[in-house]
Predict the structure.
Amino acid sequence: MTKKIAVLPGDGIGPEVVAEAVKVLERLRRDFGLNIELETAPVGGTAYDQTGKPLPEATLKLAQTADAVLLGAVGGPQYDTLPRELRPEKALLGLRSELKLFANLRPAILYPQLASASTLRPEVVAGLDILIVRELTGDIYFGEPRGVRTLSNGEREGFNTMKYAEHEVERVARVAFDAARKRRKKVCSVEKANVLETSGLWREVVLKVAKDYSDVELSHMYVDNAAMQLVRAPKQFDVIVTGNIFGDILSDEAAMLTGSIGMLPSASLDANNKGMYEPIHGSAPDIAGKGIANPLATILSVAMMLRYTLNASALADRIEKAVSKVLDAGLRTGDIYTDGMKKVGTKEMGDAVAAAL
Ligand code: NAD
C-alpha cells in the first residue's frame, strides 16, 4: 500500500535541507521500490505569511491523514514580535499535541569520522551512540494550574505544575524499552525521585513496566547526576528515558556532545508509531538562503522514518551507510569542516548521499 508522507519544509534553512531529504526519498522510490507519495504544505512563518496562521487547517489535516510527517524547521527573527499564538513555534506545539506525539526520540551519535568536532576529548565521545526518549506532551510544560498571580502583599508570583499520570509514564517507558531491545538492551530512567513526588510515581511505574522486559537492564539516575555523567562518561548510556523538562535539557546536552547540530535527527511518535521526523536544529536564519546548511540531520530523519513508521529498516540502514560513506570520502559542509576535508554545499552533500545509496 502506498504510504503518504506530509512534507512541511517551514522556514529559513528548512526548505533547503528538506529538498535534499526529498531527493533521497525520491531515489529510494525510483531505485529501491519504496512505495510512497509526497505532499507538501506550508508551516511556521511561511504559513503565517501565506495564510495568517502558523498552522493552517489544511496543513494540519494533511499531517493528520499522512502516515508520517517530514518537517524542516520553523522560526525567524521577523516573527519574534508576533503575539505568541501566531508565532511559528506554535505550529510545532500544535502538531505535537494534535497528532498526540508523546514520545520524542533523539539519538546522539558521533560518527567516528567527526570525533574531533566535539568539545570533549575524542576518547570520551568517539563511537558515542545514545538514544534519549523524552516524554513530549505532559509534565510542567502542560500542567495546570499555571500562571502569574498577585499575592496579598502585592508581590507577583509565577507558578507551573509538574504532573504525570501513570498511563503517560507507562506508554513512554514502553517506547524506551522497545527501542532498547533493538539496541544494546539498557534503559536508564532519569528523574528526581529524592525530591519530587511526580518523580517517585514515575519510578514506580517504570519499575512495573520493566517486569515485561526482563531481557532489558534497567537503572535509575537523578537528573543532576545524569547531566554530570553525560559529560563525564557518556558511553555508559544506551537508552535514557525521561520526562518533558528534564529531557528537553538533557537532549540538548547530549546533542552537543557530538559537536555537530547539523547531524542529528529526531522522531516524535504516537501510540501507533506514526511519527513526525525532523532535524533537531532550528531554521538557522544566519545561514538561510546561502546553500551551505548541512542536510544530513534531515536525511538521517528520513532514515528514522523508514525504521519507526514505514517498517523499512533495510532502507534506513542503507541511508545511514550512505551518510557514513560520504563522510569517509571527506565531504563536509561548513559546520563540520576540518582542515584537509572537501568543503561542499547543501545540494552537493544531498547529491552525494543520494548517489551513495
Ligand atoms: P538554530 O539551530 O537554528 O541555529 C543554531 C546555530 O547552528 C546557528 O549558528 C546555525 O547557523 C547553526 N546551524 C543550525 N542548523 C545547521 C545546519 N543544518 N547546518 C549548518 N549549521 C547549522 O538555533 P537558533 O539560532 O537558536 O534558532 C533560530 C530559529 O530557529 C529561531 O527562530 C528558533 O525559534 C527556531 N528553532 C526552531 C526549531 C524547530 O523548528 N524545531 C528548533 C530550534 C530553534
